Amino acid sequence: MISVNDFRTGLTIEVDNGIWRVMDFQHVKPGKGAAFVRSKLRNLRTGAVQEKTFRAGEKVAKAQIETRRMQYLYANGDQHAFMDTETYDQIELPSSQIEYELKFLKENMEVQIMMFGTETLGVELPNTVELEVTDTEPGIKGDTASGGSKPATLETGLTVQVPFFINQGDRLLINTTEGSYVSRA
């Protein structure tokens, strides 16, 4: 058991028969009444995000999540194959379970697979991924880095806003948390 006063971003807990990851939290001490913790949680089974308030000092169960390093192999219809890089065991996950992560996954990419006992919860991406621009309007001479943005489609099908100087074929670093442009690779 862990106290909600010890919450930190990335912590996994068991609440209401679900496994949740703490995305954000805030300790609130109102002038009148008891202190509480306002949190933003993501369900690791469904991907749903929920805001939940706990009384200060309340105890919740800490979920023992194990991560295994795996390599994304290929898509087979609605199933996506991953291979453990140490044991060479393969697992398949449905598209519905990793819908958000598919925007950043490309073949042979290494990711962390989250496991709760024998149950596979999903994919944990690195903070940034390197992707190639497959389609964007050409840059025009005189455009600067600080002068606005244009849409660019990446090799995984994700569309992000990029500066005007980015061209087709450029390799970019993309933030996987926000799905936004970081820099050229």
Throw out a few tags for this protein:
185 residues; mainly beta; 0% helix
Question: Would you spell out the secondary-structure blueprint of this structure?
Answer:
Elements: E1 2-3, E2 12-15, E3 18-28, E4 36-43, E5 49-55, E6 59-62, E7 66-76, E8 79-84, E9 90-94, E10 110-116, E11 119-124, E12 128-136, E13 150-154, E14 159-162, E15 171-175, E16 180-184
Antiparallel strand pairs: 1-6, 2-3, 2-6, 3-4, 4-5, 7-8, 7-10, 8-9, 10-11, 12-13, 12-15, 13-14, 15-16
Question: Would you kindly provide a written description of the structure presented here, covering whatever features stand out?
Answer:
The strands form 3 sheets. This protein has a 6-stranded antiparallel sheet, with no helix packed on it. With 185 residues, the protein is mainly β. It has strands at 2-3, 12-15, 18-28, 36-43, 49-55, 59-62, 66-76, 79-84, 90-94, 110-116, 119-124, 128-136, 150-154, 159-162, 171-175, 180-184. The model has no long low-confidence stretch (mean pLDDT 87). Strand 2 (12-15) and strand 3 form a beta hairpin. Keywords: Cytoplasm, Elongation factor, Protein biosynthesis. It comes from Metabacillus halosaccharovorans. Belongs to the elongation factor P family.
- Which strand order does the major sheet show? 1-6-2-3-4-5
Weakly predicted, low-confidence segments: none
- Per DSSP E runs of 2 or more residues, the count of β-strands stands at 16
Which of globular, elongated, flat, extended, rod-shaped describes the shape? Answer: flat
Q: Helix and strand succession?
A: EEEEEEEEEEEEEEEE
Query: Main sheet?
Result: 6 strands, antiparallel
Rounded average pLDDT: 87
Strand content: over 45%
Number of helices: 0
Report helical residue fraction: under 10%
Radius of gyration: 20 Å
- C-alpha termini separation: 43 Å
Summing up helix and strand content along with how strands pair, one would put the structural category as mainly beta
